[in-house]
Amino acid sequence: MDADGVIDSYVHDVARRLPRDRRNDVAYELRALLADDVRSRAEADGRAPDEALALDVVRGFGRPAETAARYHRPFAILQPSDTWTFVVAALAGGALAGLLSSPPPGEAGAPGAAAGAAQRSSTATLAWLGVLVLLFAAKNLVLRRRPEAFAWRPRPVRDRNAASRAGNAAIAAVLAAYLVLYLAPGPVVAAVTGGRVAAADLRYTDSFTGDLRMPWLVVPLVVLIALQLAVVVAGRWRPGLRWARILVTICTATQFGWHAKYGAVFENPDAERAGLWVAAWTAGVLMVLAGVELYREYTRVDPAPEPERHRDHVAA
Amino acid sequence: MDAALPKLEAELRRGVVVLAVLSRLRTPQYGYSLRQALDAGGMPIEEGTLYPLLRRLETQGVLESSWRTDASSPRRYYRLSPAGERLYGELRETWRRQVDVLDKLLD
Question: What ipTM goes with this model?
Answer without folding.
Answer: 0.79
